[in-house]
Design goal:
This protein is α/β, with parallel strands linked by helices. The chain has one domain: Aldolase class I (TIM Barrel, Alpha-Beta Barrel), CATH 3.20.20.70. The chain contains ten helices and eight strands. It has an eight-stranded parallel β-barrel, surrounded by seven helices. α1 packs parallel to α10, α5 crosses α7 and α7 packs parallel to α8. The chain is globular and about 45 Å long. It starts with a strand and ends with a helix. It binds phosphoenolpyruvate. Phosphoenolpyruvate binds next to β8.
Length: 247
Protein backbone atom coordinates (compact mmCIF):
# COMPACT_ATOMS: atom_id res chain seq x y z
CA UNK A 1 0.00 0.00 0.00
CA UNK A 2 1.20 3.52 -0.82
CA UNK A 3 2.73 5.61 1.98
CA UNK A 4 0.08 8.04 3.28
CA UNK A 5 -0.02 11.41 1.56
CA UNK A 6 -1.11 14.65 3.18
CA UNK A 7 -1.56 17.23 0.42
CA UNK A 8 -2.52 20.88 0.85
CA UNK A 9 -4.59 22.67 -1.78
CA UNK A 10 -4.15 26.43 -1.48
CA UNK A 11 -6.78 27.09 -4.18
CA UNK A 12 -6.74 30.76 -5.32
CA UNK A 13 -4.97 31.90 -2.16
CA UNK A 14 -1.42 32.98 -1.57
CA UNK A 15 1.09 35.61 -2.60
CA UNK A 16 4.86 35.30 -2.50
CA UNK A 17 4.93 36.45 1.13
CA UNK A 18 2.77 33.48 2.13
CA UNK A 19 5.55 31.08 1.22
CA UNK A 20 6.87 31.78 4.73
CA UNK A 21 4.19 29.30 5.83
CA UNK A 22 5.56 26.67 3.45
CA UNK A 23 9.10 27.29 4.69
CA UNK A 24 7.99 27.09 8.34
CA UNK A 25 6.34 23.76 7.56
CA UNK A 26 9.51 22.44 5.91
CA UNK A 27 11.59 23.54 8.91
CA UNK A 28 9.29 21.76 11.34
CA UNK A 29 9.41 18.58 9.24
CA UNK A 30 13.19 18.76 9.02
CA UNK A 31 13.33 18.73 12.83
CA UNK A 32 10.81 15.91 13.19
CA UNK A 33 10.17 13.97 9.99
CA UNK A 34 6.60 13.17 8.98
CA UNK A 35 5.30 9.62 8.76
CA UNK A 36 3.50 10.63 5.57
CA UNK A 37 4.54 12.14 2.27
CA UNK A 38 3.69 15.83 2.43
CA UNK A 39 2.77 18.07 -0.51
CA UNK A 40 1.66 21.65 -0.98
CA UNK A 41 -0.24 22.69 -4.11
CA UNK A 42 -0.09 26.49 -4.34
CA UNK A 43 -1.52 28.56 -7.20
CA UNK A 44 0.45 28.25 -10.44
CA UNK A 45 2.03 31.67 -9.91
CA UNK A 46 3.86 30.35 -6.84
CA UNK A 47 4.96 26.92 -8.03
CA UNK A 48 8.42 27.88 -9.18
CA UNK A 49 9.13 29.97 -6.08
CA UNK A 50 7.71 27.26 -3.82
CA UNK A 51 9.85 24.63 -5.54
CA UNK A 52 12.96 26.76 -4.96
CA UNK A 53 12.05 27.52 -1.35
CA UNK A 54 11.29 23.87 -0.61
CA UNK A 55 14.22 22.32 -2.52
CA UNK A 56 16.08 19.86 -0.26
CA UNK A 57 13.05 19.76 2.04
CA UNK A 58 10.61 16.85 2.45
CA UNK A 59 7.70 18.98 1.17
CA UNK A 60 6.69 18.14 -2.39
CA UNK A 61 5.24 20.85 -4.62
CA UNK A 62 2.12 20.18 -6.62
CA UNK A 63 -0.26 22.06 -8.90
CA UNK A 64 -4.02 22.48 -8.70
CA UNK A 65 -4.94 21.69 -12.30
CA UNK A 66 -3.39 21.18 -15.74
CA UNK A 67 -4.45 21.25 -19.37
CA UNK A 68 -4.56 17.96 -21.27
CA UNK A 69 -2.48 19.17 -24.24
CA UNK A 70 1.29 19.71 -24.23
CA UNK A 71 1.08 23.18 -25.80
CA UNK A 72 -0.99 25.22 -28.24
CA UNK A 73 -3.66 27.88 -28.58
CA UNK A 74 -5.21 27.54 -25.12
CA UNK A 75 -5.06 31.04 -23.68
CA UNK A 76 -4.74 31.10 -19.93
CA UNK A 77 -4.16 27.36 -19.59
CA UNK A 78 -1.04 25.62 -18.30
CA UNK A 79 0.17 22.22 -19.46
CA UNK A 80 1.44 19.46 -17.23
CA UNK A 81 4.84 19.80 -18.89
CA UNK A 82 4.94 23.50 -17.91
CA UNK A 83 4.08 22.61 -14.32
CA UNK A 84 6.83 20.00 -14.24
CA UNK A 85 9.22 22.55 -15.73
CA UNK A 86 8.31 24.95 -12.90
CA UNK A 87 9.12 22.30 -10.28
CA UNK A 88 5.82 20.54 -9.58
CA UNK A 89 5.84 16.79 -9.03
CA UNK A 90 2.10 16.27 -8.45
CA UNK A 91 -1.08 17.79 -9.82
CA UNK A 92 -4.68 17.76 -8.57
CA UNK A 93 -7.15 16.99 -11.37
CA UNK A 94 -10.93 16.87 -11.29
CA UNK A 95 -11.36 18.94 -8.13
CA UNK A 96 -15.08 19.60 -7.69
CA UNK A 97 -14.44 23.33 -8.05
CA UNK A 98 -13.09 22.58 -11.55
CA UNK A 99 -15.82 20.07 -12.37
CA UNK A 100 -18.61 22.45 -11.27
CA UNK A 101 -17.09 25.85 -12.04
CA UNK A 102 -15.42 24.95 -15.33
CA UNK A 103 -17.72 22.21 -16.61
CA UNK A 104 -15.09 19.50 -16.53
CA UNK A 105 -16.42 16.03 -17.38
CA UNK A 106 -14.99 12.68 -16.34
CA UNK A 107 -13.44 12.41 -19.82
CA UNK A 108 -11.74 15.80 -19.34
CA UNK A 109 -10.39 14.69 -15.98
CA UNK A 110 -9.12 11.39 -17.43
CA UNK A 111 -7.33 13.30 -20.21
CA UNK A 112 -5.71 15.58 -17.61
CA UNK A 113 -4.64 12.58 -15.52
CA UNK A 114 -2.99 11.04 -18.60
CA UNK A 115 -1.33 14.38 -19.36
CA UNK A 116 0.05 14.47 -15.83
CA UNK A 117 1.55 11.01 -16.22
CA UNK A 118 2.95 11.96 -19.65
CA UNK A 119 4.78 14.87 -17.99
CA UNK A 120 6.05 12.75 -15.12
CA UNK A 121 3.63 14.23 -12.55
CA UNK A 122 1.59 12.18 -10.09
CA UNK A 123 -2.10 12.97 -10.61
CA UNK A 124 -4.38 13.27 -7.59
CA UNK A 125 -7.74 12.46 -9.18
CA UNK A 126 -10.69 13.87 -7.23
CA UNK A 127 -14.20 12.45 -7.05
CA UNK A 128 -17.17 13.18 -4.82
CA UNK A 129 -20.93 13.47 -4.69
CA UNK A 130 -23.08 16.55 -4.13
CA UNK A 131 -25.43 16.82 -1.16
CA UNK A 132 -28.44 16.25 -3.43
CA UNK A 133 -26.84 13.08 -4.79
CA UNK A 134 -26.10 11.81 -1.26
CA UNK A 135 -29.60 12.62 -0.06
CA UNK A 136 -30.99 10.71 -3.05
CA UNK A 137 -29.00 7.65 -1.95
CA UNK A 138 -26.74 7.90 -5.00
CA UNK A 139 -23.34 8.64 -3.40
CA UNK A 140 -21.75 5.26 -4.21
CA UNK A 141 -23.13 5.19 -7.75
CA UNK A 142 -21.86 8.73 -8.46
CA UNK A 143 -18.43 8.24 -6.98
CA UNK A 144 -17.76 4.84 -8.56
CA UNK A 145 -19.00 6.21 -11.89
CA UNK A 146 -16.54 9.10 -11.58
CA UNK A 147 -13.71 6.65 -10.81
CA UNK A 148 -14.53 4.55 -13.87
CA UNK A 149 -14.73 7.65 -16.06
CA UNK A 150 -11.82 9.66 -14.64
CA UNK A 151 -9.12 7.09 -13.83
CA UNK A 152 -7.51 5.89 -17.06
CA UNK A 153 -6.64 2.17 -17.17
CA UNK A 154 -3.29 3.17 -18.68
CA UNK A 155 -2.22 4.52 -15.29
CA UNK A 156 -2.11 0.99 -13.80
CA UNK A 157 1.14 0.50 -11.94
CA UNK A 158 2.17 4.15 -12.24
CA UNK A 159 2.16 6.94 -9.66
CA UNK A 160 -1.47 7.89 -9.11
CA UNK A 161 -3.54 8.91 -6.11
CA UNK A 162 -7.30 9.33 -5.75
CA UNK A 163 -9.11 11.74 -3.41
CA UNK A 164 -12.68 11.27 -2.19
CA UNK A 165 -14.02 14.76 -1.58
CA UNK A 166 -17.77 15.02 -0.96
CA UNK A 167 -18.72 18.33 -2.55
CA UNK A 168 -20.88 19.25 0.43
CA UNK A 169 -17.95 18.82 2.83
CA UNK A 170 -15.51 21.12 1.01
CA UNK A 171 -15.02 24.39 2.84
CA UNK A 172 -18.23 23.93 4.85
CA UNK A 173 -17.01 22.51 8.15
CA UNK A 174 -19.26 19.50 7.52
CA UNK A 175 -17.79 16.01 7.28
CA UNK A 176 -19.31 12.61 6.61
CA UNK A 177 -19.39 10.14 9.50
CA UNK A 178 -16.53 7.68 9.68
CA UNK A 179 -18.79 4.79 8.51
CA UNK A 180 -19.86 6.94 5.53
CA UNK A 181 -16.21 7.65 4.65
CA UNK A 182 -15.31 3.97 4.99
CA UNK A 183 -18.26 2.90 2.85
CA UNK A 184 -17.28 5.22 0.00
CA UNK A 185 -13.57 4.42 0.25
CA UNK A 186 -14.42 0.71 0.11
CA UNK A 187 -16.49 1.25 -3.03
CA UNK A 188 -13.69 3.33 -4.56
CA UNK A 189 -11.22 0.53 -3.85
CA UNK A 190 -13.42 -1.98 -5.68
CA UNK A 191 -13.85 0.38 -8.62
CA UNK A 192 -10.09 1.00 -8.78
CA UNK A 193 -9.43 -2.75 -8.96
CA UNK A 194 -12.01 -3.02 -11.74
CA UNK A 195 -10.30 -0.23 -13.70
CA UNK A 196 -6.63 -0.85 -12.91
CA UNK A 197 -6.57 -4.57 -12.07
CA UNK A 198 -4.35 -5.67 -9.15
CA UNK A 199 -2.58 -2.26 -9.23
CA UNK A 200 -5.86 -0.72 -8.08
CA UNK A 201 -5.36 -2.36 -4.68
CA UNK A 202 -2.20 -0.28 -4.14
CA UNK A 203 -3.52 3.19 -5.02
CA UNK A 204 -3.73 5.61 -2.10
CA UNK A 205 -7.23 6.98 -1.48
CA UNK A 206 -7.21 10.35 0.29
CA UNK A 207 -10.18 11.85 2.10
CA UNK A 208 -10.80 15.57 1.57
CA UNK A 209 -13.44 17.95 2.87
CA UNK A 210 -13.09 20.05 6.04
CA UNK A 211 -10.17 18.08 7.46
CA UNK A 212 -8.98 20.07 10.47
CA UNK A 213 -6.55 19.49 13.35
CA UNK A 214 -9.42 18.38 15.58
CA UNK A 215 -10.88 15.69 13.28
CA UNK A 216 -7.73 14.50 11.49
CA UNK A 217 -6.81 11.65 13.85
CA UNK A 218 -10.22 10.03 13.57
CA UNK A 219 -10.44 10.45 9.79
CA UNK A 220 -6.90 9.30 9.09
CA UNK A 221 -7.43 6.13 11.15
CA UNK A 222 -10.45 5.10 9.11
CA UNK A 223 -10.23 1.97 6.97
CA UNK A 224 -8.95 2.61 3.42
CA UNK A 225 -8.10 6.26 4.17
CA UNK A 226 -4.59 6.73 2.83
CA UNK A 227 -4.14 10.38 3.69
CA UNK A 228 -5.90 13.69 3.25
CA UNK A 229 -6.39 16.47 0.74
CA UNK A 230 -6.65 19.63 2.82
CA UNK A 231 -7.87 23.03 1.67
CA UNK A 232 -8.32 25.82 4.22
CA UNK A 233 -6.30 24.17 6.98
CA UNK A 234 -3.24 23.88 4.73
CA UNK A 235 -2.77 27.65 4.51
CA UNK A 236 -1.25 27.93 7.98
CA UNK A 237 1.80 25.81 8.77
CA UNK A 238 0.73 25.23 12.37
CA UNK A 239 -2.67 23.79 11.40
CA UNK A 240 -1.33 21.75 8.51
CA UNK A 241 1.44 20.37 10.72
CA UNK A 242 -1.10 19.13 13.26
CA UNK A 243 -2.90 17.25 10.49
CA UNK A 244 0.39 15.79 9.23
CA UNK A 245 1.25 14.66 12.78
CA UNK A 246 -2.12 12.89 12.99
CA UNK A 247 -0.82 10.14 10.65
C1 LIG B 1 -10.25 21.04 -0.97
O1 LIG B 1 -10.25 22.16 -1.47
O2 LIG B 1 -9.85 20.08 -1.62
C2 LIG B 1 -10.72 20.91 0.40
C3 LIG B 1 -10.84 19.71 0.89
O3 LIG B 1 -11.02 22.05 1.08
P1 LIG B 1 -11.34 22.19 2.66
O4 LIG B 1 -10.33 21.36 3.40
O5 LIG B 1 -11.18 23.66 2.95
O6 LIG B 1 -12.71 21.68 2.89
Amino acid sequence: MAKPLIAGNWKMNGLAADLTEAVALAQALAQQPAKARVALCPPATLIERAARALADSPVLVGAEDCHAQVSGAFTGDISAEMLADAGAVLVVVGHSERRAGHGESDADVAAKALAAARAGLEPIICVGETLAEREAGRALEIVTGQIKGSVPAALAGGAVTVAYEPVWAIGTGLTPTIPQIEEVHGAIRQALVEVLGPAGAEVGILYGGSVKPDNAVEILRATEVGGALVGGASLKAADFLQIIRAV
